[in-house]
Amino acid sequence: MPARLQVDLSRPVLIAVTALLVVMIVLPMGWLVVYSLSDKQGAPTLGNFVTLFTDPSFVDPLITTLIIAVSVSTICCLVAAPLGWLVARTDMPIRRIVRTLVMASLVTPPFVGAIAWEMLAAPNSGLLNQLWRNLAGMPSDEALLDIYSLPGLIFVIACYTFPYVFILVANALDRMPGELEDASSMLGAKTWQTARLITVPLALPTILAGALVAFLQALNLFGSPAILAIPAGFHTLTTRIWSLFQFPPKPELAAAASLPLLLLTVLLLRGQALALGRRGYAVLGGKYGEPRLVRLGAWRWPAAAAALLVLAMPLFLPYAALFNSAFSRVASRLVTPDTITLHNLRFTFLELSSTMPALKNTFLLATLAATLGALLALLIAYIVARRAIRGHRVLAFLATAPLAIPGIVLGVGLFLAYTRPPLMLYGTLWILLIAFITIELPAAYQQLSSAFHAVHPELEEAGRMLGATRLRTLADITAPLLRSAVIATWCFVFVAVIRELSAAVILFTSETKVLSVLIFDLKESGDVGAIAVLSLAMVGITTVVIAIANRFGGGREAGRLHARAEG
Amino acid sequence: MRRRTFLAATALAPLGARVVSAAPPAESITPALIEAAKKEGKVTYYTAMDLSVAEPMARAFETRYPGIKVAVERTGAERLFNRLAQEMASNIKRCDVVNTSDAAHVITWKRQDWLQPYVTVEIAETVAPDQRDADGTFVNQRTHLSAMAYNSSLVKPEDAPKGFNDLLDPKYLGKLVKGHPGYSGTIMTATHQIARELGWGYFEKLAKQKVLQVQSATEPPKKLEAGERAIAVDGSDYLFWMSKERGAPIELVFPIEGTPQISNPMAVFKAAPNPNAARLLFAWIMSADGQEFIVNLSGQYPANKKVKAKGGRPPLASIKTLREDPAAVEKLAEEIKTKYARTFKV
Asked: Which CATH number is B145-260+326-344 given?
């Protein structure tokens, strides 16, 4: 085909991508604002906000949520910072294993973690409480732990949030030059003085950023509160928003209640950017040697034991409880060879008619979202990195904007935008697909845009000079070079979609039920055996996908899990 | 005394003057219906019944009529009601047969003209007129109770409560588990009856007992069996019985004030995507075959008079029950939910 007939698709692509992002982000958020300022009849009003800030049924959850977010943030830093230091800067044994396991604990969806901790620490039937009563000889209504409480919920959220802070801290300490610490000790400072005067100040911006990440996670999380808050007798802001979709639905109030979450998230992300921006001064000048590992001496094994104890909270104990429950008729009893049963497996896979449709929907959505999301992120990352089109900044902004939209808020926005003409998407898998791609786009975009920095533009320019269009260059030259990053991103989105609950719970209908929603529905009727089976299946699948990602050499990228609200 | 719900009559009370019924002529399960249903190949059954009964029942239907797959969509009746409203508003047609534990729902649906009048010969012959709509849009599938129960390994029989007012005793502080009327139709119906008999002040006092709040009426039995709480304030009686019969240390209590009674109306949806399979499933569940299956498995009280109640269970007539009043529940549902959320903080 003669070269002059080839049309450069840049402009149509820009328009198409922008239009898509508008459909995904601007429209839902726009309707959110409109609804929050309307009454039931659609007339403009500020009444929703008055209700929001005066009615105790909203003010209490707001306060509860802030208490949770502050506490989780503090606990995460207190646990993750020392653990990150142990793993990155000391000669603690099994530190590699610890690092891998902390990251592995992120595979657990927060709502599954909460259900597992319910099996462990429900005041009477919890396995840990039973153990404690047996050991201490306490009567049947004494409890050591009560998961149905505000501290219980804070603990569970912290279990599945601290890994984010840990990854930030450990990665930052990896990159921190060892020379400064060496100089300090050569000048005669004791180990703890070096730590106090050098290591801690250098790591502080990262810890601060980690604190903000944890705060945001806890603020926007739906899964764990949805499992524990109702039995504990309170609401958080996200569960309250969800409850507004019970009959009769009050979308105006839900929209109004979503806006504070949105605003707070935007503000905190600005704060995080500032905190992370300051980290630059840690890496001034020259080349650095490998950081010297601090010798723990006699503390080596106690430190390792402490690390394993921390890991027991998100990993060993919950999974033990899930396995126990999967093969037990009653979750509160330990499985013995006499009582082991396949009843739950049989029920889940042979009787429960929602299992197979939910598995099918979940896989279809995860595959589509991962494929389309990775492609879209690749396209945007390319346009922005190569400044291919005027207006590329708008695209970069739109692609990262969803980071500031909590899953449940996006769910509400999409619900409002697409239960009306012209796009009646509610009730189809499309609306879930849009939600999942939107939620994961920022992380996918960030991963791929950093990967683009590694590919030299000259290769592309050569392609362009030889007459190929931009798209062709992208397909033939750039994409193959980015293969491992693209695969890692694909796996990453796939995994994230499988565990997503907060947007799905607003947007699903009976025809479009996904695995996470099915588990959530089963929780309503208390079918913990089936929940355990489905959760283990879900985590098993996710683990396999991550293993594949690692095989394709995307392991490092896949490990760099993004920090945004999920579940 | 036996106080079965006056479902249809209550629903039609304002139209009392009407003599002529709009019900279509009763039909039977014909080979033509079975053939048409098989052509559709599937049917979706929205229900609030516990999965441990609903799914085996669906499988039994599939065995009886091979080639028709039943998808069970189970959630608490109040959530089901909401889900259906949202789906209908968005023109999503999936529900074929609906079965709720909040009898007020069928009144709303009938008024909205969502229900397909359909009567089988068997229903006309075996179901008491007060158990079905005179216009043939719905029929009570089965009746159950919202019973109280305790875990006998945690509470001695002599310490067990005898009725609702006993539960306010300080010795039960932190020992109670309870379902939620915002999710469960059984609990909504029961809450209305208890509030009517004892006043809302009763719940305000009960809320001070540090009640473990769960959602569906199917969960208190499970929490009780797990030993998480010693006493269930409410919950589906058939599940208490089923776990007791499985060997769990569970004893039922029928409150001296009266036990809330819950009927479970069922209807074919007008917008059913599988209209023939819908009729067939509906007809089979109301047949002696279907009713016996429910009774044998769960011991709920059948609507079909020819089917005997399960042995070993107390006859419904022997239990002092509270009167069910769906029309009132329909009017008060939103108020009850709001008040309940305020009282129990969730």
From this structure: 3.40.190.10
Q: What kind and span of H or E run contains B335?
A: helix B326-344
Measured torsion, CA atoms of residues B282, B58, A245, A356, in degrees rounded to the nearest 10? -140
**Cβ pair B81:A247 closer than 8 A:** yes
Residue of B nearest to A146 (CA): B228
Q: Closest Cα of chain A to B11: distance in Å? A: 21
Q: Do domains B7-143+264-313 and B145-260+326-344 have the same CATH topology?
A: yes
Q: What is the mean pLDDT of residues A386-406?
A: 82
Question: Which residues touch A205 (CB under 8 Å, ≥6 apart)?
Answer: A275, A276, A278, A279, A282
A334-371 pLDDT, tens digit per residue, is: 999 988 999 999 999 999 999 999 999 999 999 999 99
Q: Is the pLDDT of residue A239 over 60?
A: yes
**Class of the CATH domain delimited by B7-143+264-313:** alpha beta
In the CATH scheme, what is the code of domain A48-107+150-286?
1.10.3720.10
Question: Which of B59, B84, B86, B203 best probes binding to A when mutated, by most A CB atoms within 10 angstroms?
Answer: B86
C-beta separation of A485 from A221 below 8 A = no
Q: Do domains A11-45+355-567 and A48-107+150-286 have the same CATH topology?
A: yes
What is the rounded CA–CA span in Å between residue B155 and residue B160? 6
Q: What are the residue boundaries of the structural domains of chain A, listed by start?
A: 11-45+355-567, 48-107+150-286
Architecture of the domain spanning A11-45+355-567: Orthogonal Bundle (1.10)
Assembly ipTM: 0.89
Look at A509 and B87 and tell me if their CB atoms are within 8 Å. Answer: yes
A525–B212 CB contact, under 8 Å: no
Of A246, A347, A521, the CB nearest to B78: A246
| CB pair distance less than 8 Å for A353 and B58 | yes
Residues contacting residue A136 through CB under 8 Å, at least 6 positions apart: none
Of B70, B90, B183, the CB nearest to A424: B90
Chain A environment of B228 (Cβ under 8 Å): 122-125, 332
Contact between chains at A351 and B55 (C-beta distance less than 8 A): yes
Classify residue A290 by its DSSP letter. P
CB pairs under 8 A between A and B: 142
Phi, psi of A434 (to 5 degrees): -60, -45
Cβ–Cβ contact B173 with A under 8 A? no
Contact B95 A510 (CB under 8 A): yes
Q: Is the pLDDT of residue A488 over 90?
A: no
Exposure string over B268-304, b if 16+ CB within 10 A, otherwise e: bbbbbbbbbbbbbbbbbbbbeebbbbbbebbbbbbbb
Which residues in A92-112 are b (16+ Cβ under 10 Å) and which e?
bebbeebbebbbbbbbbbbbb
In the block, tokens 């009843």 appear at A343
CB-CB neighbors (< 8 A) of A233 in chain B: 211, 213, 344-346
Q: Print pLDDT tens along chain B (346 aa).
A: 444 444 444 444 444 444 467 889 999 999 999 999 999 999 999 999 999 999 999 999 999 999 999 999 999 999 999 999 989 988 899 999 999 999 999 999 999 999 999 999 999 999 999 999 999 999 999 999 999 999 999 999 999 999 999 999 999 999 999 999 999 999 999 999 999 999 999 999 999 999 999 999 999 999 999 999 999 999 999 999 999 999 999 999 999 999 999 999 999 999 999 999 999 999 999 999 999 999 999 999 999 999 999 999 999 999 999 999 999 999 999 999 999 999 998 8
The answer to whether B221 touches B231, Cβ cutoff 8 Å, is: no
Q: How confident is the model at residue A277 (pLDDT cuts 50, 70, 90)?
A: low
Q: Which of residues 98-137 of B touch A (CB under 8 A)?
A: none
Of A368, A100, A248, A90, the closest CA to residue B335 belongs to: A248
Task: Identify the H or E element spanning B302.
Answer: strand B301-302
